[in-house]
Amino acid sequence: MSDVREIINPSTEEAIAEVKALSALETEAAITRSAAAFASWRKVAPGTRAALLRAFAANVLSHNEELAQLEVRNSGHTIGNARWEANNVADVINYYSGSVERLSGRQIPVPGGIDITFKEPVGVVGIIVPWNFPMPIASWGFAPALAAGCTVVLKPAEITPLTAMRIAELAHEVGIPQDVFAVLTGSGRVVGETMVTDPRVKKIVFTGSTEVGVHIQTIAAAQVKPVTLELGGKSANVVLADADLDKAAASAPYSVFDNAGQDCCARSRLLVQESVYDAFMERFEDAVRGVRVEDPRLDSAEMGPLISSSHRKSVESFVDESMVLFRGSCPTGPGYWYPPTVVEVVDPNHRILKEEIFGPVVAVQTFRDEAQAIEMANDSDYGLSGSIWTSNLGRGIRVARGIEAGNLSVNSHSSVRYWTPFGGYKKSGLGRELGPDATDAFCEVKNVFINTEI
Ligand code: TAP
Predict the structure, then answer these.
(1) In terms of domains, do 248 and 210 share one?
(2) Helices and strands per DSSP (H, E), number in the chain
(3) Is the pLDDT of residue 44 over 80?
(4) What ranges make up the beta strands (E) of 332-403?
(5) For the residues 117-138, what does the mean pLDDT come to?
(6) How many domains does the chain have?
(7) 13 alpha carbon to ligand 1 midpoint, in Å?
(8) Atom of ligand 1 nearest to the CA of 195
(9) Where residue 288 sits, what CATH number does that domain have?
(10) Which atom of ligand 1 has the smallest separation from the CA of 213?
(11) Residue 265 annotated to the active site
(12) Domain limits at 59?
């Protein structure tokens, strides 16, 4: 029996749709169909599979505006960001369509014969996605999985399923069979956990909180099921004294307030070298006050609302425990609005410096020198992202090499590109998505020896 879930627009608090919440039995039935579809999808000639993926990418591209508008309504993303996200999905599918014909094994010299390796698709892949970037994160999993010859069951977050559902329709329209790429709507506890538990799902790609990631890894471990985990972050934005302070301050809001701070890569700790603290903060305050928080349908909007009322309460609870230095403005409501907020915390062990806030809040600290900056940046259980601002490129690389994180940028707030690998150190995750090798995560390697002496 299916239940239904009401979908809320976080900018208006209005219900915009009702979506089925599948039961465990319905999830299992979808996995049965996916396993059956795998038998034929894996045999589709590489050229045909690549062509299907290219047609899928083109269909997504030609529906960019529709998908973007849908995301604005379902997730409160600004229209500018949502257009970029829909575009990213098309780019990612296109990129991995190119790897279908390049999936190849090796011939390795051995005595007495020939040794050949084959890359074989693992089978049904379960992809579990959070609510913060419903479109791109789904595609980072499903595009390389489909390219490798796997079938996919995709579970979007229960509160933001609309774009994933539409993207699956766009795949089916161009001839990718429904059971090769199926979106299963419903809760993590029922649909997600059934996907992780079912032995016919051969691989799980999970993006979400570290807490749920650990739970999933524990279940998967009992079956020796491989998992890719993209988890939380508590990244640092390090401003060294020799940085171009104008550029560093102008960029800093985007490194933490983008998507209202609901970004695993958010640089929610701002570390500023003591000697330039006043000069930097003056510029940073101007930049923060200038962030346009408004109706996300407007082209001028730079930040929209938070995803839900309960999430806003959680963000507020962090700020209530700290000292606000300054903040921007935001609409009063309806909608789950929260202003860009800059806080100071004296206690280095305060939870605001340790836990992921996932909102538009940044905590500022100072450091003496390069060594202390690295030490402070690493004072976290997480290790996903971060930025370094300096005019000395050698120093920038040195500090980046010192920070225990998977994705860093020097003199930029952006470090995620679909053709470069992405993932975390420490409790930020396991494995890598994106980049040229992502299809390997969806393949077993088979080694065959042929005796030529017989
Ligand atoms: P979670 O609460 O962990 O949920 C993520 C997904 O897992 C949702 O689809 C959720 O379903 C599902 N889920 C929940 N419990 C489950 C279970 N027992 N078994 C299987 N699936 C289950 O995270 P969230 O609040 O949606 O997203 C925010 C978190 O994601 C943050 O920590 C953020 O840093 C992280 N994140 C990481 C990255 C990368 S790439 N590292 C990117 C984006 C976000 P329902 O919620 O629908 O019930």
Answers:
(1) no
(2) 14, 20
(3) yes
(4) 341-344, 361-367, 382-383, 385-389
(5) 98
(6) 2
(7) 22
(8) 20
(9) 3.40.309.10
(10) 3
(11) no
(12) 3-231+428-451
221-246 residue pLDDT tens:
999 999 999 999 999 999 999 999 99
Q: Is 261 in the pocket of ligand 1 (CB under 6 A)?
A: no
Report the alpha-carbon distance of residue 40 to residue 343 in Å, rounded. 56
One domain for residues 201 and 290 = no
For residues 329 and 218, state if they share a domain: no
Query: What amino acid occupies position 186?
Result: G
Torsion of CA 252, 254, 255, 257, to 10 degrees: 110
CB of 376 shorter than 6 A to ligand 1 = no
Residue 63's CATH number: 3.40.605.10
> What are the strands, taking DSSP E only, across 208-360?
227-230, 236-239, 269-273, 323-327, 341-344
Q: What percent of the chain has pLDDT over 90?
A: 98
Distance of alpha carbon 143 from alpha carbon 124, whole angstroms? 13
Number of CB atoms found within 10 A of residue 347's CB: 10
Pair 175, 274 in one domain: no
193 close to ligand 1 (CB < 6 Angstrom): yes
What is the best residue among 131, 139, 212 to mutate for testing ligand 1's pocket, by most ligand atoms within 8 Å of CB?
Answer: 212
Query: Residue 94: pLDDT above 60?
Result: yes
Residue 266 buriedness (CB in 10 A; 0-12 / 13-18 / 19+)? buried
Question: Given this model, what pLDDT does residue 1 score?
Answer: 52
Q: Is the CB of 132 under 6 A from ligand 1?
A: yes
* pLDDT one-digit tens code per residue, 146-190: 999 999 999 999 999 999 999 999 999 999 999 999 999 999 999
Q: Is 335 exposed, middle or buried (0-12, 13-18, 19+ CB in 10 A)?
A: buried
Catalytic-role residue among 26, 71, 193, 230? 230
State whether the beta carbon of 234 lies less than 6 angstroms from ligand 1: no
> Among residues 251, 266, 282, 296, which one has the least CA distance to residue 361?
266
Q: CB-hemisphere CA count at 13 Å for 57?
A: 24
What's the pLDDT tens digit per position in 240-296? 999 999 999 999 999 999 999 999 999 999 999 999 999 999 999 999 999 999 999
Active site residue 150: no
> Is residue 103 included in any domain, yes or no?
yes
Q: Give residue 62's identity as a one-letter amino acid code.
A: S
State whether 148 and 275 are in the same domain.
no
In short, whether 442's Cβ falls inside 6 Å of ligand 1 is: no
User: Residues 321, 199: one domain?
Assistant: no
